[in-house]
Design a protein that fits this description.
It is a single chain. This protein is of the alpha/beta class and about 260 residues long. The longest helix has 29 residues. The termini are far apart. One of its GO terms (biological process) is bile acid metabolic process.
Amino acid sequence: MSWLEVEKKTVIVTGGSSGIGAAIVKELCHLGVKVVNTDLQEGTFEHENLSFIQTDVTSRVSVEQAVKSTIDMFGKIDALVNNAGINIPALLADTNQLDSPYELNDALFEKMVNINQKGVYLMSQAVSRYLIKEGAGVIINMSSESGLEGSEGQSCYAATKAAINSFTRSWSKELGKLGIRVVGIAPGIMEETGLRTASYESALAYTRGKTVDEIRAGYSQTSTIPLGRSGKLVEVADLVVYLISDRSSYLSGVTINVAGGKTRG
């Protein structure tokens, strides 16, 4: 038994097929945790401790079925990691061109809000109803540094993450008295997640008045980070492991910034 004693826990991870979610899934599985990856597409990672349930986090029916299936398979849920999210860079107003594909519109707004915010609400509600009966459990909400600081060209994404921070604070007050902890994680500049598509980079470059090459060069610029490097995905995963463990039993209602000491200053 390890110091963290997480071996017998069962954890749902949303969006666990890629990016930070995949790193969390791998770390938990290797430590003996029973992990249920709820995503639209199954990932490439395979492990005896990993189960996959195709889930649309924006659909109440899909979410509630995933939670029920998890309980049917393992008899319990100890923690939920709300990781599923999407980021589509877009300006509030693009004065350079009419009908700009890089201007925020209703479709983009609703897509990001539905996945990043509504999805967290639906999953948390479904899981918390079970956790309340047990009188214990942890909900971890994946936020972002942009949710704390804002982000040029990514205002809608940043706003959804700011909303997640408020969910974390509010739900910790509601659920704490029932034995449930709610904690947030806000990663800063991280190593390559595999989610930086050409379309994402093109949109981000346009919204910031830069070239794609300049955006790519910026990934390795760490002058604003006191530790002098980008974060590793496993460092976020390690924090998740600690937060689901009973060793973090007095941590609730906070969003932890995993950013190497980077702040506005």
